[in-house]
Amino acid sequence: MFKRILIANRGEIACRIIKTARRMGIETVAVYSDVDKDALHVEMADTAVHIGPAPAAESYLVIEKIIAACRESGAEAVHPGYGFLSEREAFAVALEAAGIVFIGPNRGAIAAMGDKIESKKAAAAANVSTVPGFLGVIEDDAHAVKIAEEIGYPVMIKASAGGGGKGMRIAYDRSEVAEGFNRSKSEAKSAFGDDRVFIEKFIVDPRHVEIQVLGDKHGNVIHLGERECSIQRRNQKVVEEAPSPLLDAETRERMGAQAVALAKAVGYDSAGTVEFVAGQDKSFYFLEMNTRLQVEHPVTELITGVDLVEQMIRVAAGEPLALKQSDVTISGWAVESRVYAEDPSRNFLPSIGRIVRFRAPVERHGDHFDQITVRVDTGVYEGGEISLYYDPLIAKLITHAPTRAGAIDAQARALDGFYVEGIRHNIPFLSTLMQHERWRAGRLSTRFIAEEWPDGFHPLQAEGERAKIIAAVAAVMEFQTTERKRKISGQMKHPHVPGDRRRIVRVGKQEIELEVEREGSGIDVHFIENGKRGRKRYTESTWKPGDALWLGVIDDDPIAVQVHDIPNGHLMTHHGIEVKVYVYKPWEAFAIRLMPEKAKLDTGKKVLCPMPGLVLSVEVTPGQDIKAGETLAVIEAMKMENVLRAERDGTVAKVHAKKGDSLPVDAVILEFA
């Protein structure tokens, strides 16, 4: 077994690999760029080596620097994680030449499967069902249009060396093919250094189901069941689960057998994933094979009990698999949510900056009495920074329970306990999803998000029972804060005043009237209905003034509410609802109602930068007449190109940005007359 391994990656996956290596008694070496010198993976590793400037192309993607770091640190092997160099044949070749073990598949398997075009040819040769498409060289956008029309719309344009949704476009007509082809090539060149793309038929209303395979260097290959990854945005997975609610035992067996056959055909000898696009009728077609560890691998680990990172290390060290296919059992259900630094209310655009506060849910491991497991894989810390140079993943939240409904409920509760301040994040969206009827019923497709939120995501509103829960928590916090103030030495004793317990809680734009009073170790909340006391709710918690989370029970139901302080009130988050809440005494509420609301600034004629990013191009000039739908500018953020289009006809009055500018969010790009 290796004594020391280097992790050629950063963030969450580097931290996750370190945990397993530490458990196995293996020393770890981290590598880091300029902006990652204080990163969590650097702190966790036994030693760390600096490898260059912030851009990945000058640090994490430079093979020579990784090999030099191995020599400097004495690392015997390298685990690439996912992304960066994990699927580069050249990396495996260079490591082999340097006498360093690659903790991943052999170079032949990477060559056969790592290239999306070659992998489809290999799959067809292994009698794996494949999607109709064109795998040859595409000369230009006119050639792309011709191919698309021969295949039939809609089509998928994909980067051959791609992954993570980059270099991928869906096209429904000629114009979308032409533009999508050029954008895919540009993104692929920027992200992977390889601008080759291919085109294939896009399956309407598809589901994304993948099989986890595991092989060794002795010819043994098994599969560990499937994962459903249909909840996607911009072709990037957001929520994954295992097993899939679509498959039955027979379909699982057939899909697993095809995945194993493909892996054996290319001599696969590590952990890898064979991805399929599946129809709602349970038909399935080979999509691609990822010759690396997947982001979503924890859900498979929780339902099988197999540590995939450990298996990869043992296989790379030459050990045969300790498992046979008959040993693999699936127990319970697991759900994983990717917590991203992005703003759901701005069409999920990336958010960068410093993490002022960070509190992850408490991890727990199910036992005989409580079979709920909560796992958090993260690479960030309080005070750290989300950089524009890398993927905006904050953490992965994984829950496991005996049933799918139980895993979803556990996920919803854990998301309420996730506290992130300083940047925008997608927790409100993830929490809303966990309450969504269609998601809970398992009626999924890769267009789920686009279909359910066609006009963009809008958070749940604080209404009905949810509004009352938030109001009760806010009133209880105000009551406890007042109790604490009255205990300050030297304060005048406060006499009992009739009606002093009554409060008006403004939740968003609605008002909820209630009374609060101490009841032993807890606090009673009486809701006022028609001027009289109505339903009573008993609350109890460990919250104290200043805590970022209210954790407790309301009538024996466990409740978690996030609390962000704002002037004179709180921004509170619960079950996907994010709302401003103010607690007033009755006379204060009367006065507040008389105050006029501040008018909002009119920015209707300005095009604002929707995210922090780099201006790749400005396609218009002052005085130019523009039609709705025309491209105005292209902004790059987190290696993704975002096209800004005109929402209506107009004339450009001023252009404030130019190619190469680095803009903050809401910076003015141009103005219309």
TrEMBL record:
GO BP term (any one): lipid catabolic process
Superkingdom, natural source: Bacteria
UniProt EC number: 6.4.1.3
Domain Biotin carboxylation: 1-454
SMART domains hit by this protein: Biotin_carb_C (SM00878)
CDD domains: biotinyl_domain
Keywords from the UniProt entry: ATP-binding, Biotin, Ligase, Lipid degradation, Lipid metabolism, Magnesium, Manganese, Metal-binding, Nucleotide-binding
Keyword presence, RNA-binding: no
Known catalytic reactions: propanoyl-CoA + hydrogencarbonate + ATP = (S)-methylmalonyl-CoA + ADP + phosphate + H(+)
GO molecular function, one term: metal ion binding
Lipoyl-binding domain sequence ranges: 596-673
Annotated metabolic or biological route of this protein: Metabolic intermediate metabolism; propanoyl-CoA degradation; succinyl-CoA from propanoyl-CoA: step 1/3
The keyword Protein transport appears for this protein: no
Cited Gene3D superfamilies: 2.40.50.100, 3.30.700.30, ATP-grasp fold, B domain
Residue span, ATP-grasp domain: 120-317
Cofactor: biotin
NCBIfam families listed in its UniProt record: PRK08591.1 (NF006367)
PANTHER family: CARBOXYLASE:PYRUVATE/ACETYL-COA/PROPIONYL-COA CARBOXYLASE, METHYLCROTONOYL-COA CARBOXYLASE SUBUNIT ALPHA, MITOCHONDRIAL-RELATED
Name of the featured protein: propionyl-CoA carboxylase
Organism in which the protein naturally occurs: Rhodoplanes roseus
Lineage, uppermost ranks: Bacteria, Pseudomonadati, Pseudomonadota, Alphaproteobacteria, Hyphomicrobiales
